[in-house]
Specification:
The complex is a heterodimer of chains A (192) and B (1127). With 192 residues, chain A is of the alpha+beta class. Chain A has one domain: Beta-Lactamase (2-Layer Sandwich), CATH 3.30.450.60. Helices cover 49% and strands 18% of the residues of chain A. In chain A, a hairpin with a 2-residue loop joins strand 4 and strand 5. Chain A starts with a strand and ends in a 7-residue tail after the last helix. Among the domains of chain B are: 101 residues, no CATH class; 102 residues, no CATH class; 108 residues, Immunoglobulin-like; 103 residues, TATA-Binding Protein, CATH 3.30.310.10. Helices cover 55% and strands 10% of the residues of chain B. In chain B, helix 28 runs parallel beside helix 30. Classes of the chains: A alpha+beta (192), B alpha+beta (1127). Chains A and B meet through strand 2, helix 1, strand 3, helix 2 and helix 4 of A and helix 1, helix 2, helix 4, helix 6 and helix 8 of B. Chain B: This is AP-3 complex subunit delta. Chain B: Keywords: Acetylation, Coiled coil, Cytoplasm, Golgi apparatus, Membrane, Phosphoprotein, Protein transport, Repeat, Transport. Chain B: Its main location: cytoplasm.
Chain lengths: 192, 1127
């Protein structure tokens, strides 16, 4: 069983968390911090397995992780999973992300956490490996995304237009200006 | 209205979506919390709107915030609303949020049952998929009960996408609602044959998880999985199946055999390292249970595969190689030990995970030779280690490694103490308690080290204030507990008790935890007693006493005020005592001795099993009624009560005993097997030579001072490093000395065969002698404790009798007071080799240097055992032959008997077969001089027969006599060994021999001659070999076993004793014993198997025997009869 899947960046900022066993939110954060602490101090060319996470599981549990550029992908598994198998699975997952996002980078994960979740749901379900064939995963994700698009129809179109405008302006806008505030003024026309 | 709607939709266009939220948070790095709280307020507003898309958007943002650690359980109802949207987009969002935040305690879950059922049965497969995925994360017992049927139907859905999800979620359902397992299982099994590989893989996955929890129930699926394993090409499925087999093989050994072929094929064919590794793992698991008959993929193959993994460039694979090795180490330590260098190399790896794994393996790697080196390496790591977890792990491993098998590998305890002291300098370790208990253990049990330990502990106490600042929280201060106790208890070794006393009474001590303060106060009292004792000697010390009393009266009040009751009580008692003594001192009353008497007596460690071993006094029956139970029940009520009371204590007890016997026999077998596999056990079936008798023996053996170049008192805190160097030098010197000695010895006389064998060889493990004369005080046992060493041994065990018999027969031999001059010479020429060896019996040092084994009163039984262990195959024959004075011209031979008091040389012989050499037996002859004259120039000669020949040195004629390499003063005995070559062992035989010697008395000397017979019984060729019942059964079935039987009548012995007697005198071991019937086994040095079935009815013993050599059997039965007719 996979007990948790954590993705965080080099600074320990979570990008995706998926626990298959219930932990309260503050505990989840502690686990992320502990895991980051354990993983981040390791060199890149050491082994991908770690024991000693005290918060999640006990001696039966292992952390299996991979480090890609700015992101750590950490799977917390028990002894029923094959260590090298999970390592392969992480690779499959990342390659799938790469296919779905076209050259995936950390920003994709930051802004599309929900989509990453949907992809992950096709790989692991309830802590058990669902599918390891990348083409199958990508196909299922694509079908569902198409469904979403078709459903979006008219109501989604303006939202996309607005976000396109927002995104267009993004580079020019100084960082400290809060884009979020702009749109609040528009609807405050005096009511009839 | 229309306007409102338009406004709503415009509103929505400019609502923040997830991307805006993320962007906003990134732009508010400084006041993130504040920004998020405003966002949450907005989200709350959005959730109040009716528009489902607004709600979905809000829920999406909440999911993101949940990841950042914000509790979103307040929005659970809104999430349910979004889940129930008809649009896939929103539904999916809702289920995602639910799977992230719902749990068993979420109360709105019960509202979702119908919605989920609707989604599960939706015509759109993705609606179903989303529902299944979500459900897998938040399924509750109620949901599983209500939805189990729907999910079960989905397992046969037309779309494989749904089928595989439905199969996987069944596992979660089984966990929450176990009743669903039975009806669903057939369908699950069906899915193993599903045409879609994904569904198949899911089914394998679920069954593997189930089997992991309870493998027994899934054994019946083995053939199905076996088929899958040979047909599947999906590595994922294969890995899971192989893992499953790893769990099943321990339950079904036959499976192991079946798996050989496919696993071998996979190992050789697969290119996937993950699959290869799992195969190796399963093979190891198979090996651990099925022994030699199990998986033929030899363990060596596995071990070499592991090594191959360890050499891999990928650190991950290396890690797994070590992991697999540690599994092999548990059962087959030898095959790992040969890769010691590799593992030591891994200790230097920069990867902590690999180092940790190597540490685990290290436990089986240490030896006397390399212990210091390895620990030194570990200490370096301790210094370098950053993380406390790894450092703590190192610390426990160091202590584990050093203390394993009763400190077997430690040759220098000073070094060990200094290692422990060094470890106390670690900051923030949690294992202060562990270090403390080691210090106490070593100081109490190793007497020779106490002086050194006390000096180190005093220093530790002195620097304590310095330490206590930062270590208090973390528990390293526990070592002060040990330090204080050691200084107090062994205060006679303290150079300056006053100074230590001062250190112990510093005000800062009161910041330590209560239990440590209490020990401080108590041991301050002991130190005070020591000061008083010293004070009697002179006036100068008298002043010191006054000062100490002053110090105590000044400092103790701090402790009297302590909040800890224990400290308070002890301190006020002590304070009053001091004041009273002060008064007496003023009156010039000498109180030193009285105060010392308060703490007199030595505290010895008590063996954990000591209580059990207290023999039950004769005539004490704890189950007997003290008062007769009321015989005539007066009322109905009481009747039932008394009946209850009568049965209660008896029935369960009997059952218990019955279970005990079988259970114990089984456990004994298991233990034997385990011991045979365990490298730390010295091989052999006899119990460890550690027992109550040692305690006494230890006291009587003089402690020999060692060479002075090893400084016993090291000024200042010791550092362990220098011991490594010292040890090196010492060993070098040792070797040189030993060489010299050996030359000398050679010149003097040739000693026993055993010694000669050792001379030429390189320095062996056992040759490394301990640096100090270290007597490990064995744990104390109650007086007249049962003389069994094996704690679990049941009182009916025939072996027990055997042990008693051994010790009896040897203690009855006359005690040897002075040990002959010759022996004494031998002892003093290498004092360190002899005595530590004897003393370190429990530590596993050979008895090689013992000059003789038979004349050591009381302990001889142990030496025999020890010897049996060391020279495993060697076996002993307890045939004693007794000889007497020449003038009386009469001979008698006493079998197995005690030795009668005679007057002159008294050879007692002992024929030993050696399994390694089927044609050689060693005869140990003990010569004891019972006369009052000095005997010298003894020559031993035997008239060879066709069958047995005395082995003489090369060049000697067949009739030449051998000179006995010692002289015998009056009342002294010594042992000599002679080797005989034997052709056939099926017949007993007697060899005639002569001993010639010169008797030197006051009135001159005369040449005397003593004739004797050496009796080689058939029994003496047997070796006690344990045999397991299954192997025994096979043996009996084999065709070439010839049968014979014997009857013994009028045997008055209880069956137990009878068995013990046969086992003991004729070297059998009990295979199985049922009531008054037992099967026994033994093996001759030439490999004949002898099986006995002993039945006992009404004083008549029937022995049915089988052996592959009928004449041997016949002779053996005659000997057994003889044994019983004599008694």
């Amino acid at each position: 069983m996979i007990k948790a899947i954590l993705i965080f960046n080099n600074h320990g900022k979570p990008r995706l968390i998926r626990f298959y066993q219930y932990f309260a939110e503050d505990m989840q954060q502690q686990i992320i911090r502990e895991t980051f602490h354990l993983v981040s101090k390791r060199d890149d060319n050491v082994c991908n397995f770690l024991e000693g996470g005290s918060l999640i599981g006990g001696s039966d549990y292992k952390l299996i992780y991979r480090h890609y550029a700015t992101l750590y992908f950490v799977f917390c598994v028990d002894s029923s999973e094959s260590e090298l198998g999970i390592l392969d699975l992480i690779q499959v997952f990342v390659e799938t992300l790469d296919k779905c996002f076209e050259n995936v980078c950390e920003l994709d994960l930051i802004f599309h956490m929900d989509k990453v979740h949907y992809i992950l749901q096709e790989v692991v379900m309830g802590g058990m490996v669902l599918e390891t064939n990348m083409n199958e995963i990508v196909a299922q994700v694509d079908v569902q995304n198409r469904m979403e698009k078709s459903e979006g129809g008219l109501s989604a179109a303006p939202a996309r237009a607005v976000s396109a405008v927002k995104n267009m302006n993004l580079p020019e806008i100084p960082r400290n200006i809060n884009i979020g505030d702009i749109n609040i003024k528009v609807p405050s026309l005096s009511p009839f | 209205m229309a306007l409102k709607k338009v406004k709503g939709s415009i509103d929505r266009i400019f609502d923040k979506n997830l991307q805006d939220l993320v962007r906003g948070i990134r732009n508010h790095k400084d006041d993130e919390a504040k920004y998020i709280s405003t966002c949450i307020d907005e989200i709350k507003q959005e959730l109040k709107q009716e528009n489902i898309s607004v709600k979905a958007n809000a829920v999406c943002k909440l999911t993101y915030l949940q990841m950042l650690g914000y509790d979103i359980s307040w929005a659970a109802f809104n999430i349910v609303e979004v889940m129930s949207s008809s649009k896939f987009t929103y539904k999916r969002m809702g289920y995602l949020a639910a799977s992230q935040s719902f749990h068993d305690g979420t109360d709105v879950i019960m509202l979702t049952t119908n919605q989920i059922r609707k989604d599960l049965n939706s015509p759109n497969q993705y609606d179903t998929g989303v529902a299944l995925t979500g459900l897998s994360c938040f399924v509750t017992p109620d949901l599983s009960r209500d939805l189990a049927n729907d999910i079960m139907t989905l397992m046969s859905h037309t779309k494989p996408y749904i089928r595989k999800k439905a199969v996987l979620i069944m596992y979660k359902v089984f966990l929450k609602y176990p009743e669903s397992l039975r009806p669903a299982f057939p369908r699950l099994k069906e899915k193993l044959d599903d045409p879609d590989p994904g569904v198949q893989s899911a089914a394998v996955n679920v069954i593997c998880e189930l089997a992991r929890r309870n493998p027994k129930n899934y054994l019946s699926l083995a053939p199905l999985f076996f088929k899958l394993m040979t047909s599947s090409t999906n590595n994922w499925v294969l890995i899971k199946i192989i893992k499953l087999f790893g769990a099943l093989t321990p339950l079904e050994p036959r499976l192991g055999k079946k798996l050989i072929e496919p696993l071998t094929n996979l190992i050789h064919s697969t290119s996937a390292m993950s699959l290869l590794y799992e195969c190796v793992n399963t093979v190891i698991a198979g090996r651990t249970v099925s022994g030699s008959s199990g998986l033929c993929v030899g363990l060596s193959v596995c071990a070499s595969l592991c090594v191959r993994l360890c050499f891999s460039l990928s650190p991950s694979v290396k890690y797994l190689g070590l992991l697999a090795m540690s599994k092999i180490l548990k059962t087959h330590p030898k095959s790992v030990q040969s890769h010691k260098d590799l593992i030591l190399q891994c200790l230097d790896d920069k990867d902590e995970s690999i180092r940790l794994r190597a540490l685990d393996l290290l436990y089986g790697m240490v030896s006397k030779k390399n212990l210091m080196e390895i620990v030194k390496k570990l200490m370096l790591h301790v210094d370098k280690a950053e993380g406390t977890t790894y450092r703590d792990e190192l610390l426990t491993k160091i202590i584990d490694i050093c203390s394993q098998s009763n400190y077997q590998y430690i040759t220098n305890f000073e070094w060990y103490i200094s290692i422990l002291v060094e470890l106390t300098r670690l900051e923030g370790t949690r294992h202060g308690h562990l270090i403390a208990s080691q210090m106490l253990d070593v100081a109490v049990r190793v007497k020779a080290i106490r002086g050194f330990a006390v000096s180190q502990m005093a220093l530790l106490l002195d620097s304590a204030p310095l330490l206590s600042g930062n270590m208090q929280r973390k528990g390293i201060c526990e070592v002060l507990y040990a330090a204080a106790w050691i200084c107090g208890e062994f205060s006679e070794y303290l150079e300056d008790p006053v100074q230590t006393l001062e250190a112990m009474l510093r005000p800062k001590v009161s910041t330590l935890p209560g239990h440590i303060q209490a020990v401080y106060v108590q041991n301050a009292a002991k130190l005070f007693a020591a000061v008083l004792r010293n004070g009697q000697q002179g006036s100068q010390e008298g002043a010191a006493v006054q000062e100490t009393i002053q110090l105590l009266t000044d400092q103790l009040p701090i402790f009297v005020q302590s909040a800890d009751l224990e400290v308070q009580e002890r301190a006020s008692c002590f304070l009053q005592l001091v004041k009273y003594i002060q008064k007496l001192q003023q009156k010039d009353v000498d109180v030193g001795e009285e105060v010392t008497a308060l703490f007199a007596g030595e505290l010895n460690p008590v063996a954990p099993k000591a209580q059990k071993k207290v023999p039950v006094p004769e005539g004490l029956d704890l189950d007997a009624w003290i008062n007769d139970p009321p015989s005539e029940p007066e009322s109905e009520d009481e009747k039932s009560k008394s009946a209850f009371a009568e049965e209660e204590p008896q029935q369960p007890r009997q059952r218990h005993r019955e279970v005990d016997e079988k259970e114990l026999a089984r456990r004994r077998e298991e233990r034997k097997q385990e011991q045979a596999n365990n490298p730390f056990y010295i091989k052999g079936s006899t119990p460890a030579p550690k027992g109550y008798q040692d305690t006494m023996g230890v006291e009587h053996i003089p402690v020999v001072q060692i060479d002075l170049s090893v400084p016993l008192k090291v000024p200042g805190m010791a550092t362990s490093d220098k011991y490594v160097k010292i040890e090196e030098e010492r060993r070098k010197r040792d070797r040189a000395e030993k060489g010299k000695k050996k030359e000398k010895k050679k010149k003097r006389e040739k000693r026993s065969r055993g010694d000669r064998r050792n001379e030429s060889g390189p320095e062996s493990e056992e040759d490394i002698r301990p640096a100090q004369t270290v007597d490990i005080v064995t744990e104390e046992m109650p007086e007249n404790a049962l003389p069994s060493d094996d704690e679990d041994r049941d009182p009916n065990d025939p072996y027990r009798e055997a042990v008693v018999a051994t010790s009896k027969s040897t203690t009855e031999e006359p005690a040897d007071p002075g040990q002959g001059s010759d022996t004494e010479d031998a002892v003093s020429s290498f004092p360190l080799r002899c005595f530590p060896d004897v003393l370190l019996g429990p530590l596993g040092v050979t008895a090689r240097d013992l000059p003789a084994m038979h004349f050591m009163p009381q302990k001889s039984s142990k030496h025999k055992k020890k010897k049996q262990k060391k020279e495993k195959e060697e076996k002993e024959k307890k045939k004693k032959k007794q000889h007497r004075v020449p003038n009386q011209e009469e001979e008698e031979s006493v079998q197995n008997g005690t030795v009668e008091e005679e007057e002159d040389p008294l050879p007692v012989c002992d024929v030993q077969g050696n399994l390694q050499d089927s044609s050689r037996v060693v005869v140990s002859v003990i010569f004891e001089n019972k006369s009052s004259s000095f005997l010298k120039s003894m020559e031993f000669n035997v008239l060879d027969s066709l069958n047995a020949k005395l082995q003489r040195p090369e060049g000697a004629g067949p009739h030449d006599s051998l000179s006995v390499p010692f002289q015998l003063p009056p009342g002294v005995s010594n042992e000599a060994r002679f080797v005989f070559s034997v052709q056939s062992i099926v017949m007993p035989q007697k060899l005639k021999g002569t001993l010639t010697f010169i008797v030197k008395s006051d009135d001159g000397s005369s040449h005397e001659k003593l004739d004797f017979k050496l009796h080689f019984t058939c029994t003496s060729y047997l070796t006690t070999t344990p045999c397991y019942s299954d192997a025994y059964a096979k043996l009996l079935e084999s065709a070439d076993m010839k049968g014979s039987s014997a009857r013994l009548q009028g045997v008055g012995l209880p069956f137990q004793h009878l068995l013990a007697k046969i086992c003991f005198h004729h070297h059998f071991s009990v295979v199985e014993k049922i009531n008054s019937c037992a099967s026994l086994y033994s093996r001759s040095i030439q490999g004949h198997h002898i099986c006995l079935l002993v039945k006992y009815t009404d004083q008549t013993v029937t022995i049915d025997a089988k052996c592959d050599e009928s004449s041997l059997l016949g002779n053996l039965l005659d000997e057994i009869k003889l044994t019983f007719s004599q008694s």
